[in-house]
Amino acid sequence: MGFPHKSHPKETVVLSQYFGDADARTYKGWTKRGGYEALAQALKTDPVAVTDIVKESGLRGRGGAGFPTGLKWSFMPKEKKRPHYLCVNADESEPGTFKDREIMRWTPHALLEGTAIAAHAIRAEVAYIYIRGEFTEPWTIMERALGDANAAGVFGDITIHLHRGAGAYICGEETALMNSIEGKRGNPRIKPPFPAASGLFGLPTTINNVETLAAVPHIMKRGAAWYKGLSLSNPKSTGTKLFSVCGHVQRPGNYEVTMGFPLKDLLYDMCGGPPAGRTLKACIPGGSSVPILTREETEACLLDYEGVVEKGSMLGSGGVIVFDDSADMVYQIMRLARFYAHESCAQCTQCREGTAWTTKILERILAGQGKTKDLDLLLDLSENMTGKTICVLSDSCAAPVVSGIKKFKGEFEAYLAGKRQPVIAHG
Amino acid sequence: MADGVITLTIDGAPVSVPPGTLVIEAAKQAGVLVPHYCYHPGLPVAGVCRMCLVEIEKAPKLQIACATTVTEGMVVKTQTAPAKDARQGVLELLLINHPLDCPICDQAGECELQDFVFQEGQASTRYAEFAKRFNPVEEFGPDVLYVPNRCILCTRCVRFMEDVAREPVLNVSERGDRAFIGIHPEARLDHPWAGNVVDLCPVGSLLSKDFLHKARAWELDKTASICTGCSQGCNISLDTRDEVVVRVRPRPNLDVNRYFICDHGRMHYRWMNRGDRIEAPLIRRDGELQAVDWDEALDRVVGILRGASGKAVALVSPGASSEALAAAKRLLSGFTWTGAFQVVMGEEAPLAGVPNLALRAERAPNAKGAEQLGYTRDYAPALAAAKTAAVVLVLDDPDCAVETDGALIYLGTVLGDDAPCREAEVVLPIANVAEEEGTFVNRDGREQRYSQAKPAPGMAQPAAWVLGQLAQAMAPPAEVS
Fold first, then answer.
1. Residue B480 falls within a domain, yes or no?
2. Once rounded to an integer, what is the mean pLDDT over residues B21-46?
3. Mean pLDDT in chain B?
4. In a shared domain, residues A279 and A138
5. Does one domain contain both B352 and B435?
6. For position B476, what pLDDT does the model report?
7. Same domain, B358 and B391
8. How many separate domains does chain B show?
């Protein structure tokens, strides 16, 4: 549902059915709504069969990369010689994304149930749910829910730990998250080895996003075919997806639609479009790390993994950031770059130095002191920051810069030509 | 593919290496140095500087040579435009915050940033008028200074302390371009092997206080030597400037010390430059030691030896070369012979992350060699026996508390005012370890050669030469028939 707004008829409400329903948070309330039935069923099912159901459903990772979930589970060693771990990425920090927060706030047991099913499927006895440090309310709710579920003994031999992050964006990167759980500095690791071979504490590990796992109980209960049927376009994108819409729309919030839903309908029908008298200018469809779409691209975009790629961006986390004609794209892009410069873990040279330099150039342009060569310099720097580092934070900084300059060059040039009032952007 | 061998091509050159070899190491074997900063063969791979990006056929993007293992038939190219551009990009980014203070930097001349920028960097920067990051110099430990402005965050020092020394007192503090190397607020970088971080630092960010502003790298002559600090036998380089030893650095030897030396060994060189040396042979004449030439001094010794018989005692330093020790034994072969040495003992200080590597309790380089030649550790009985011996030879043991009724012959580098050896009939000046070449046998029985780094003062000669001359004079080699 379009939480905190009423559900829209065009939504397909699965994950968000109980958003706003405080009773669903409790263990009792959750079981009354059919909760933990899927888990009980899964625990009686062979792990390989559980994995196969998820494979069959077409569920793909909702954290951003869109990797097929069942396939990922199947990468775990066939022969279990050492302990296996499950990590749940609840470090939702991507600017513009706030779907996992609502899942944990309203349906903590959905996450716990999905976590336990996944742990069973990959034969992990321990699961860690890594919750973003700033998520105080979700943390409290998750703690209570875990306590209640443990008291009811629903998890069998599976132990679930909550682990609280300390406020670093990069800890949402899967291997940085594992380092963080291990008590180390949250730096991404070189891959390979991949987590399924050597993950948390050097042991076989699977890591999934909150939204991904919250969908698993529904798939177990209602079947892979049902989930697969929830697709309006490309058969490779199945099920529903939560979109966190923020920025220049009349009704920002979380909306759940089936894959392939038109972005235009999401923004205009559900979110009410831009404020009165304004027009849509641009949209970042998948969290701050993905390329920016123009109005034309936005209005023609279908919301599934393939559809957004077709328009030159990525579905990412489903964090939709909307800009109307009042938005200063140069300023917005500078704010994004500044975010990445602030959050760079400092390991890789291109990221550590490149994100900061990019920010400085953008600040200079905004302050009316830009140089003619600055746009070429930004593009060249971005090229140097793309595809050359351990993780994709550096690429994520470059993506909006490159697409921003390409698509909104006029705004940059207005600053460079002194035709716009300079903005001093204090850090 | 042959068993246990992988063949690949690097810049057109085929090379065969064992499975598991990293591309960067395979490249070395193909004669290709892939520029790098964070990679060091003695440390775990970090893969963070991104300098060693190379093109590998069939890989979708550039790969770091330091974290990619070889595969059969792999084709690696280090000189393609994308690889060069990527490295040039890294260099530009490393330089935006790096001060151009090479003229006052100790690392200049042996700086990997300088070298690779010179090799393939750009002549100018596009960073232009932005200020560079500034952090004040910090004292990390008794001998280590940290100059954060020059730091390129390669983390070699952090990984050394964490994984090799196993005393993780350094870290990367802060994030993004504010990052710097931090030290635990209650710790000092005073681990017995901490000095290695200075060698490991590819730039002039970690400096040795001992070496600070002593010399420019290009003024140094480097000589392969063996550390005399203990019985481990670490391979070192003696760095001299104008015939003065100014620095000791490790020389890689994977079987003995890998890439490291301890701080005790690192600082164990000042005595090599002592000015109060014996510079001429001295013989006792009219109750006084008087300077003479070598011929006269050697004749005197030969005279003493020929006129004596019975018991001879040699009290030797376990820091003398095996050659000298062998010659001393040969020289006294006509006597009933006792040879002994004593070893100064200290505390053992292992380098936890490297098996069988420690600053050894036995603080002498050649005790094993002496033992192999028949010298004994039973020093006290030998010292007692010296009292009644006909001849006593003291080799480079200036503090030897010898007393004898016989003839005392002393070969040494120094002779203190109160030294018992002042009573010698003959004092022969010898070279120290930096002034001769020779062999030590380390505690594991490994024979290792060391070379001469500087000339000996005055008339001093290597002990092996002196003793060899004497032995030859005593027993001329039989004529070849």
1. no
2. 97
3. 95
4. no
5. yes
6. 64
7. yes
8. 3
Q: Does B50 touch chain A (CB under 8 A)?
A: yes
What CATH number is attached to the domain comprising A335? 1.20.1440.230
pLDDT value of residue B478:
61
Which chain A residue has the Cα nearest residue B52? A388
ipTM field: 0.93
In this structure, the answer to whether residues B16 and B135 fall within a common structural domain is no
What pLDDT does B399 receive?
81
Residue B393 lies in a domain: yes
| pTM score | 0.94
- Asked if the model's pLDDT at residue B68 lies above 60, the reply is yes
Q: Are residues B124 and B56 in the same domain?
A: no
Whether residue B307 is predicted with pLDDT greater than 60 in this model: the reply is: yes
- One DSSP character per residue, B391-409 reads EEEEES-TT-----SSEEE
Q: Does A397 touch chain B (CB under 8 A)?
A: no
Residue A245 shares a structural domain with residue A302:
yes
In terms of domains, do A295 and A381 share one? no
CATH number of the domain within which A56 lies:
3.40.50.11540
Residue B1 pLDDT greater than 70, yes or no: no
Interface residue A337 vs chain B (CB under 8 A): no
Share of chain B above pLDDT 90, in %: 94
At A28 the pLDDT is 97
**Alpha carbon A250 to chain centroid distance?**
23
Task: Spell out, as residue ranges, where chain A has pLDDT lower than 50.
Answer: none
pLDDT of residue B368: 98
What's the pLDDT tens digit per position in B369-392?
999 999 999 999 999 999 999 999
pLDDT at res. A424:
82
How far off is chain A from B271, nearest CA to CA, in Å?
43
- Does B297 lie in the same domain as B194? no
Domain span holding position B236: 99-273
Q: Which residues of A touch B53 (CB under 8 A)?
A: 388
Q: Is the pLDDT of residue B470 over 70?
A: yes
User: Given this model, what pLDDT does residue B475 score?
Assistant: 76
CATH number, position B209: 3.30.70.20
Domain-terminating residue out of B38, B73, B91: B91
- Nearest residue of B to residue A341 by CA position? B176
Question: Is there a domain that residue B481 lies in?
Answer: no
Cβ distance A185 to B172 less than 8 Å, yes or no, reads: yes
Residues B314 and B440 in one domain: yes
The answer to whether residue B161 sits within a structural domain is yes
- The residue type of B367 is A
Q: Note whether B402 contacts A: Cβ–Cβ < 8 A.
A: no
Chain B residues within 8 A of A350 when measuring between CB atoms = 50, 89-90, 93
φ, ψ for residue B472 (rounded to 5)?
A: -65, -40
Q: How far is A353 from chain B (nearest CA, A)?
A: 6
Which domain-ending residue is among B91, B117, B140? Answer: B91
- pLDDT at residue B360 is higher than 80: yes
Query: How many domains is chain A partitioned into structurally?
Result: 3
**B53 CB within 8 Å of a chain A CB:** yes
- Given this model, what pLDDT does residue B129 score? 81
- A177 and A263, same domain (yes or no): no
CATH code of the domain in which A314 resides: 3.10.20.600
Note the pLDDT of residue B123: 83
Domain that holds residue A397: 329-416
